[in-house]
Amino acid sequence: MNLGPHADFIVAAYAVTVFVVAALIAWVVLDHSAQRRVLGDLEERGVTRRSGRSR
Amino acid sequence: MAVIDLANPTRFLNLVNRVLPWLAGATLILFAVGLYRAMGAPDDYQQGATVKIMFLHVPAAWLGMMGWGLMSVAALGTLVWRHPLADVAGKAAAPIGAAFTFICLVTGSLWGRPTWGTYWVWDARLTSVLVLFLLYLGVLALYWTAEDPGRGSRAAAVLTLVGAVNLPIIKFSVDWWNTLHQPASILRMGGSAIDPSILTPLLIMAAAFTLLFFALHLAAMRNEILRRRVRAMRLMRAQEVHA
Asked: Disulfide: which of B14, B38, B112, B179 matches B201 by Cβ 3.0-4.6 Å?
């Protein structure tokens, strides 16, 4: 595939997009594991939500 | 399951856990097909290979605007019905919409330099999209810096609804003013002006980016619900300690 004389601009556009999308995916994955870990810690210490107690 | 049942955060979490793997899989498949077709698409007769930037730029622009539209509906849900899931949806969409608007601005700039001879010009389309990005940053600042999350959410919802005025300005800016940016060539009266050899991969890439947006949004909503549970449990614990 020949990207022609402006290959740098095309490669830069794809690189920036891949970086931003990867950052978004990393953000949701890391945030999810962080929230699950904190929730687990709180539940281990016996802390429950009000709605959890009624069940 | 009735749609109204999804308004319950626990049921919504169960649905997200079931749907997300399938959504992620479909997104990957669409990206694989879209990128294959995009890389095989012919060069434009005027722009050459730089037309490949369009496969990123146009979907990012659409999703930057769609994100704000989604947030506007969520803002109505927050202000009118005061539904917590509406606020969760708005807050979760803001960073994703901001990221896609950022991609739109950067790829547009990288596309503009070889085709227009400049990275940036203060024309109506570019400026209104920059305003959209700044509005996203404003909403994020309200969500992330407010001491009282409820007040922050309401302020962000008001700013979102005010900022929605910018959406038709972005869309019609190329018709209302003389701009360096080209007029609409896909969604326009009389059908698309783009050859199918380029339009088809563009639409596949747009579908892939749209699925990615919704997968990220559902995952971010799940995280926000969990974060609010953590906050509620910490408040409960603090009340018990002080009782």
From this structure: B38
